Amino acid sequence: MNPLITPKEDHLSIDDLDRGIVNLAARINTATYDLLVLVRQFDERAGWLKWGLANCAEWLHWRCDLSMSAAREKVRVAHALKTLPAITTAFSSGELSYSKVRPLTRVAQAANEESLLAFALKTTASRVEERCRELRCGTTESVSEVNLAHARRSLRVHRDTERGMMTITVELPLETGELLEKALDRARDSTASQTPTLVDESWSVQQADALVTVTNAYLSGNGEKAACTSDNYQVTVHVDRSALANRDGRSSLPIESVKRLCCDGDAVVIVEDEEGEPLSVGRKTRTVPTAIKRALRARDKGCKFPGCHHRRFVDAHHIQHWSAGGETSLSNLMLLCSRHHRLVHEGGFRIERDYQDRWFFKRPDGRAVPSCGYQAQDVIDDDIDIKELSMPINYPSAEGLFARVKSSSVSSLRDCRA
Fold first, then answer.
1. Which member of 59, 81, 96, 366 has the lowest number of beta carbons within 10 Å of its beta carbon?
2. C-alpha to C-alpha distance for 369 and 399, rounded to whole angstroms
3. Model-wide pTM > 0.85
């Protein structure tokens, strides 16, 4: 048994543990903000010179046992927060995690800070990272990142004669790597359909076989004749209208790369509006047409169940089933991975709309599943002081606090920051 957990604490309910972990994470966010403020002050006063070092990142690397890359990011974020008051306030109160603040400080400015903060507060850290990367790619300045990625492309070969194996490591620009991945997917699927295996092989083994298949096709002269016509192997790029019009916007690839791909290539470019919605129209049919599948994948990018990051093996789910009058349209479709698709159909989970006409998930017991994690105010009554929950957890005092929370009547969980 963990010596830090007493027998009574070991029997805390899952909801009690959930609240304790979330509150502790919020305090870690606040402490991280305090750390960055001190780092900024230390750097502005050049405190690292006292130790004979070249910069503050080197001092953090030495004194705080951080990697150099992490230390450089800490210093960069600390200085960037000085001109971002809204993000700073949310970070200092524990509402934003460092994982969200770090990418936000790369793209946030006075003009877009409020909208980026609103987006970050209602979604996951991975989607914040992706949105910020798209914003960087949607500017003309991203051409420098393109050139840098192109210059860094490399391939290394290592022969291990004792094991009879060869290791090939390749680094490619993102759009080129996506193209290679699609080629491997096509080779893997075609090989599997022609020569089904008798044993279950891992995905990595199948991808290795696919690489050999592509190599053999090129050496035999068949590679030049193969034409890719299936949507499963097309590279899809989504970009909003403002970026294509040479104004700052969002793009999944640097905007100049998108323009190059549009000239001549097997790529599908889905133009989105300012809200990120694909400009596509569906029709009423049970089977999801290819055009709508493209738009659906461009919009959802992966499983939409809160906290799930699966992008492969996802299904187009009719929120209102087709047999019950639901249309096969973007507004009635959602991507779900196999596990969460099964939970919605057979596991008792439901999808409903909130008062802002947004979809949210409900557990079998009727509680809502927050889109971005539980907050203290989601699970307690008004007569319990939220500040009391934000105080440092020290045992056994936490036991009494959890007992009060557990005894409170909770009718439902509110979606965080709705």
1. 366
2. 25
3. no
Residues 328 and 292 sit within 8 Å (Cβ to Cβ): yes
Residue 37 has a CB neighbour count (10 Å cut-off) of 15
Is there a cis peptide before residue 196, judged by omega within 30 degrees of 0?
no
Which residue is associated with the tokens 């929370």?
405
Q: Helix-strand-coil percent breakdown of the chain, rounded to 5? A: 50, 10, 40
pLDDT digits (tens, 9 = 90+) for 258-309: 655 554 444 555 556 666 655 443 344 567 778 788 888 888 888 999 888 8
Closest CA to 146 of 293, 241, 58, 254: 254
Yes or no: say if 239 and 255 are a contact pair by the CB < 8 Å rule.
yes
Q: Kind of pairing, strands 333-337 and 359-362?
A: unpaired
Query: Are residues 266 and 235 in contact, defined by beta-carbon separation less than 8 angstroms?
Result: yes
Q: Which residues contact residue 72 at a Cβ distance below 8 angstroms, ignoring those fewer than 6 apart?
A: 57
Tens digits of residue pLDDT in 75-97: 999 999 999 999 999 999 999 99
- Residue ranges of the domains in the chain? 9-128, 177-233
Q: 130: buried, middle or exposed (CB in 10 Å: 19+, 13-18, 0-12)?
A: middle
Q: Is the Cβ–Cβ distance between 379 and 352 less than 8 Å?
A: no
State which amino acid sits at residue 166.
M
Amino acid at 301: K
Those residues whose C-beta lies under 8 Å from the C-beta of residue 124, and which sit 6 or more positions away, are: 306, 307, 309, 371, 372
Specify whether the CB–CB gap between 254 and 147 falls below 8 A. no
| CA 25 – CA 86 distance, rounded (Å) | 20
Closest CA to 243 of 119, 143, 102, 173: 143
